[in-house]
Design the sequence.
């Protein structure tokens, strides 16, 4: 009898050890390799009854699929763009779109999570559900391909007195010349993507950069003194942007003349500048450190800037509000248009994000601006070259290039004075700028940094910022006259 | 066979039944699973769980970060939208920044076949907003990108407050017309 007892014990031990062996274990991780600069990551499959399973949450997250799980039906769908794959727990069949395919092992449900055999990763690429990645079974690695970029292999060439930037274009792609002034050229490929950002200098280009921005691929060339002309040619697969300091090439018509930006009247004189202190009245704006409200800081700054501009340029300066009152965004733009402003500056304050320790954001509308991506054509009145009527909501699109040149000049002047402070130039769909018919820029300052921050960041005062902004506008006006 | 021997015999037989049943049932279960390849159609008006990417603010930066989360949703598209935005309104879980003003609610969601998603928010969205351009930009981008990422077919988002279009949320960005997902990526 005792022998029988021992046999039973052995049987139970064997059963338990078999079950333990069959239980869930961690399997070796799978590496997921993304194109630079995204770092690689590891996902951790499980080992169940000798088979490696991956979590469908990991599959959905890695391949950006939409996962949909029906617990009562034990069904899980993964949607990859236009394709869908449907699993059923414990059923060794999947539906890929509407076609049934067999699975060697069934999907399993463990602790509320659906796991599918690792072999599914190969199936995803073989069935064409995932086109931007491959599964390497031997190395157990998911490798995402680099996206195919529309602008590639940008280079700078210096040939005598001509400096040329060239790039390969994947398709016929028309860039937009945002502005071309004696000091700077800016070109934008709307919605384009770039293989890798490059900075270069040489010849007539003091500092050049080609980079991907929120609006597309941008080529910005800061020119060396003496640049005279530029030439832009776009073939079916090649871009060539050349700059020269040889005036003869311009006179011969081979190169176009680099013209200063025009923000004033025909004589290049700035007559009316409208300054818009943001928010006001019930609209307090952002809460600033120390308990201040943005609406008060903007009005103080606008008054400082008005004094500086009146003193330096002798221009008429109009404020959209000179008291603590709420003015609608539309009315602010109307004031600028009613006065026939040459320049519109909207003032804001903030102390969050990248400028939490001080700094300035300079905004303009993108050069490709048109509300909601739509562009409406101006309406011509009279066949004899009468007035053109522009849609109210896209009036700024006519001056967007000039606005970007002004915004960049202001940002550059601030960077020069405060190189350690966060000063950024960016574009955005800013409501107050869209209906303004002249050059228009929005400045968002952080209150002056205090204490240790001021010491480490080469602290500024708000009045210093106002002075630098006024100086940079004065220099633009001088450039126009010269 | 004495009483002790009988007890041992019962124990052995009982254990044998338990162990045998254990493996037998597992075998039957595997077989039955293997023998039911037929799939049932998806039922409607039932709850499911959807994996969703939700966008929140990155602390100390002007950018967004995404969190992947399981969201309980229903079949109707409008219910899916509400469930996803309810989760977005609930806030981040990893030290990221919540962007919505306190008390903001999604009142309604409409989805046109032309790819425009209408989101009708409570007044707290505009009345409770206190932030600069970076926060407003991040809030709009969070709303638009969450739709673009999780709702296939949506390419524009229209923000309404209590059923009416508004010119802006915080005084900087224009939200009077539909916002293109591509512009806010």
Sequence:
């Amino acid at each position: 009898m005792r022998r029988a007892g021992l046999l039973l014990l052995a049987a139970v031990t064997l059963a338990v050890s078999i079950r333990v062996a069959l239980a869930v274990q961690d399997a070796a991780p799978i590496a997921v390799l993304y194109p630079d600069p995204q770092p690689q990551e590891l996902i951790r499959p499980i080992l169940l009854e000798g088979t490696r399973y991956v979590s469908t949450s990991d599959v959905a997250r890695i391949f950006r699929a939409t996962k949909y799980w029906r617990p009562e039906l034990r069904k899980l769908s993964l949607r990859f763009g236009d394709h869908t794959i449907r699993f059923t727990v414990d059923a060794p069949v999947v539906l890929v779109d509407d076609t049934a395919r067999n699975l060697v092992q069934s999907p399993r449900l463990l602790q509320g999570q659906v796991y599918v055999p690792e072999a599914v990763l190969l199936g995803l690429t073989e069935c064409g559900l995932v086109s931007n990645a491959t599964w390497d079974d031997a190395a157990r690695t998911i490798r995402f391909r680099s996206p195919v970029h529309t602008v590639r292999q940008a280079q700078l060439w210096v040939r005598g007195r001509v400096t040329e930037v060239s790039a390969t274009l994947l398709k016929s792609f028309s860039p937009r010349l945002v502005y071309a002034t004696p000091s700077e050229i800016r070109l934008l490929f709307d919605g384009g993507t770039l293989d890798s950002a490059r900075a270069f200098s040489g010849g007539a280009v003091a500092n050049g950069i080609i980079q991907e921005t929120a609006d597309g691929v941008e080529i910005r060339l800061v020119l060396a003194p003496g640049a005279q002309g530029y030439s832009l040619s776009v073939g079916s697969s090649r871009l060539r942007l050349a700059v020269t300091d040889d005036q003869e090439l311009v006179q011969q018509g081979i190169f176009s003349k680099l013209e200063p930006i025009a923000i004033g009247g025909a004589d290049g004189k700035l007559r009316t500048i409208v300054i818009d202190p943001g928010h006001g009245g019930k609209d307090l704006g952002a809460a600033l450190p120390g308990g201040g409200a943005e609406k008060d800081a903007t009005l103080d700054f606008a008054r400082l800037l008005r004094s500086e501009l009146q003193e330096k340029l002798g221009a008429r300066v109009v404020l959209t509000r000179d008291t603590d009152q709420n003015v609608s965004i539309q009315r602010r733009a109307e004031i600028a248009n009613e006065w026939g402003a040459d320049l519109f500056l909207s003032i804001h304050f903030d102390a969050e994000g990248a400028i939490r320790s001080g700094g300035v954001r300079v905004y303009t509308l993108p050069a490709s601006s048109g509300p909601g991506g739509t562009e409406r054509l101006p309406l011509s009145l009279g066949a004899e070259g009468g007035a053109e009527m522009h849609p109210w909501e896209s009036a700024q699109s006519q001056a967007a290039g000039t606005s970007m040149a002004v915004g960049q000049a202001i940002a550059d002047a601030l960077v020069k004075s405060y190189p350690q402070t966060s000063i950024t130039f960016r574009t955005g769909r800013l409501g107050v700028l869209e209906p303004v018919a002249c050059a228009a820029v929005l400045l968002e300052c952080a209150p002056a940094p205090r204490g240790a921050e001021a010491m480490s960041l080469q602290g500024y005062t708000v009045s210093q910022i106002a002075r630098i902004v006024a100086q940079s506008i004065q220099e633009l006006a001088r450039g126009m006259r010269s | 066979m004495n009483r002790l021997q009988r007890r041992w015999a019962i124990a052995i037989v009982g254990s044998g039944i338990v162990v045998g049943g254990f493996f037998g049932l597992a075998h039957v279960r595997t077989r039955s699973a293997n023998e039911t390849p037929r799939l049932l159609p998806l039922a409607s008006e039932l709850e499911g769980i959807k994996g969703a990417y939700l966008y929140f603010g990155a602390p100390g930066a002007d950018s967004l970060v995404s969190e992947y989360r399981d969201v309980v949703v229903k079949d109707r598209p409008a219910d899916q939208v509400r469930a996803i935005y309810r989760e977005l309104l609930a806030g981040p879980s990893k030290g990221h920044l919540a962007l919505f003003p306190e008390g903001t609610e999604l009142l309604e969601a409409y989805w046109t076949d032309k790819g425009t998603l209408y989101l009708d928010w409570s007044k707290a969205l505009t009345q409770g907003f206190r932030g600069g351009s970076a926060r407003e930009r991040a809030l709009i981008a969070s709303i638009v990108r969450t739709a673009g990422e999780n709702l296939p077919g949506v390419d524009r988002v229209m923000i309404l407050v209590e059923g009416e279009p508004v010119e802006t949320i915080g005084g900087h960005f224009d939200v009077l017309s539909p916002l293109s997902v591509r512009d806010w990526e």
Q: What stands out?
A: Chain A has three domains: 25-144, 151-257, 272-370+390-481.
